[in-house]
Design goal:
- With 425 residues, the protein is an alpha/beta fold.
- Helix content is 48%, strand content 18%.
- It folds into three domains: 224 residues, 2-enoyl-CoA Hydratase, Chain A, domain 1 (Alpha-Beta Complex), CATH 3.90.226; 129 residues, no CATH class; 56 residues, Nucleic acid-binding proteins (OB fold (Dihydrolipoamide Acetyltransferase, E2P), Beta Barrel).
- It has a six-stranded parallel sheet. Strands 13-14-15-17-16 form a five-stranded mixed barrel.
- Strand 14 and strand 15 form a beta hairpin.
- Helix 3 packs parallel to helix 4.
Length: 425
């Protein structure tokens, strides 16, 4: 009984103490599957190592709702206290980054930063803008979500909701005065000094006292795989890889056996497809780009006097503009990048088509067919048959009209082995 009594007193009167290393991660990118995986892996590591605190440095314009919710679910269930730190000065934690900050145990901003602007941008499954009714549903859902997080964390619910419904953004001073964040700090050291020995309330209601003063700060970077995925998830690079892939495969099909263009095109296309698993793709735009390729190929097969080429250029440019439909510009390829690349790609394809058409139209220069149209010299009178010297050889010749020895003749037909039909030039 005595042991049970002391255990009860300890639980009631003593908060839970955390004493371990401090982990730090830096998220300087949009919120998408790669950054989500990075954050969730860091939380798993912090929980496994019984870290005293995980400091998540945020500088993000926002990102995908699905990735944001994955991160928040992980934050709310984490054993390790998590601090969101909007840094460096001049940085921001907008949209999805604002939701993440509100969900963390501590929300801290550096001087000269801002947060908020969390109004959802309605995007349907095909990448098109949603109608008013659906957009209202998405906005109401986001507002309810942020209100729940803010209320549970003891933050200013009205300011949090206004950031969603009115797309308001707050400076660090406004956020601190309004009770939206917990502190303003220049660096991680100020955070450690300010919250050492401070008790914080976790999302599940537990109280934890942070013991941070003497703990080392360990920087946790992305894995090599995550860095690679982050690189190819750049929308401009993903679009460029798609264009290189299509161009390489087109060149390989037009010139079988070239090998290198096919290999390069195949690798680029696979990397582009991999990137599209991370980015929100509008499949209508992708179909338009593939249609453009079909039209360029048809230009080779059918003499449309440029109609297929013009249609291909239009389909390629429109498809490129529609290809990636994301809620923030950072997840969409820049229009200044799309148009030059699309037009340049079109011009290259048109040039290749022109070379193919010209090669098909060119007169054959080898074999029997190559003899037609050549000029030779009659070595004997042709009345109507005789000898003609052409291409360094003597040929049996049959003349359409009488030809005297020494006159020039034009070959009009190859009749058989070393026999031709000629006429006067």
């Amino acid at each position: 009984m005595r042991d049970n009594f002391f255990a009860f007193v300890f639980l009631v009167l003593s908060p839970v103490f955390c004493s371990a290393s401090i982990l730090k991660i830096t998220v300087d990118a949009a919120i998408h599957p790669v950054t989500s995986e990075y954050i969730r892996d860091a939380i798993d590591r912090a929980d496994k190592e019984n870290a005293g605190l995980l400091i998540m440095t945020l500088n993000t314009p926002g990102g995908l709702d699905s990735s944001m919710r994955e991160i928040i679910e992980k934050i709310l269930s984490a054993k390790t206290p998590i601090a969101a730190f909007v840094s460096p000065s001049g940085g921001r934690s907008a949209s999805a980054g604002f939701f993440i900050g509100i969900a963390c145990d501590l929300f801290i901003m550096a001087p000269g930063t801002n947060t908020g602007a969390a109004h959802p941008v309605g995007v349907s499954i095909t990448g098109q803008s949603m109608d008013k009714t659906m957009e209202d549903k998405v906005t109401n859902d986001a507002a309810s979500y942020i209100k729940t997080l803010a209320e549970k964390r003891g933050r200013n619910v009205k300011m949090a909701e206004d950031a969603v419904r009115k797309s308001l953004s707050y400076t660090e001073k406004e956020a601190l005065q309004g009770g939206l964040i917990d502190f303003v700090a220049k660096n991680e050291r100020e955070i450690i000094d300010a919250f050492d020995q401070k008790a914080i309330r976790r999302f599940n209601g537990d109280t934890v006292v942070l013991r941070l003063k003497e703990e080392p700060v360990i920087n946790v970077g992305m894995s090599a795989r995550q860095k690679f995925l982050l690189t190819i998830s750049n929308p401009n690079l993903a679009y460029l890889l798609l264009m290189i892939g299509l161009l390489g495969l087109y060149f390989e099909f037009a010139n079988p056996g070239a090998i290198f263009p096919g290999v390069l095109g195949g690798i680029s296309l696979l990397l582009a497809i991999f990137s599209f698993q991370i980015l929100p793709i509008n499949y209508v735009g992708l179909i338009l780009i593939l249609l453009a390729m079909v039209l360029f190929i048809l230009e080779v097969k059918v003499h449309s006097f440029g109609a297929f080429s013009i249609g291909g250029i239009i389909a390629l440019v429109i498809g490129s503009m529609m290809l990636i439909k994301a809620p923030i510009p950072e997840l969409r390829p820049s229009l200044r990048f799309i148009i030059p690349v699309a037009l340049g790609f079109s011009l290259i394809l048109i040039f290749l088509v022109y070379l193919v058409v010209r090669a098909h139209a060119r007169r054959t220069l080898t074999g029997k067919e190559g003899m037609v149209g050549e000029i030779g010299t009659a070595r004997t009178d042709l009345a109507p048959e005789g000898k003609v010297f052409v291409h360094g050889e003597l040929w049996e010749a049959e003349a359409i009209e009488p030809v005297n020895a020494g006159e020039k003749v034009l070959i009009v037909e190859v009749l058989g082995t070393l026999k031709i039909r000629v006429k006067k030039t």
